[in-house]
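COMPLEX REQUEST
Ligand: zinc ion
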Amino acid sequence: MSAPAPPDPDAVDPRFDPDRYLEALRAELPGLRVVEKERDGFSRAIDLALKLVTFGAQRHYMSRYVTTIGRTIYLPRGWAERDPRMRWCTLRHEAVHLRQFRRWGLVGTALLYLVPILPMGLAWGRARIEWEAYAETFRATAEAFGPAAARDPALRAHVVRQFTSGAYGWMWPFPAQVHRWIDAILDEVA
Ligand SMILES: [Zn+2]
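STATUS: Structure written out below.
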């Protein structure tokens, strides 16, 4: 009998393995699709539209952002090269959106995303939708990297920017309020 192989230092902890998590999501959400933005004409059209309506403030749609619409997760360039735990955390965020689409339907979610109060500058519906998902980002980060990582000021600054900048069309340009939401979720994960 041969000796057991030494543990592989590069092996992904199965609890935070993005591929395993995706399989679990497929079981939870039948019809789930995963598409690469680069190979998808619909994604290229969204990319162009976002650049136009945000005057170029959102120009990283293809290169940085993972997007969920309906039962489809759209992946940006370089996704496979990202740290597996980071991918797991991102999928936790996207899973919230998949469940929102299941809860409200494609049209209901799209209306909530775009209509109240204004499509840009004061997008209360979009801010609520994204807050529910970013709260999960903080929870997942604490689970995968430890509570100190969830409290990293760089993560906080990144999330505040998502709400207050053109990244999501200036959806909720009130940093003090976003900081209070983050304080509340960090209390929860502590
Ligand atoms: Zn999101």
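REMARKS: Residues 93, 97, 130, 133 surround zinc ion (CB under 6 Å). The chain has a mean pLDDT of 91.
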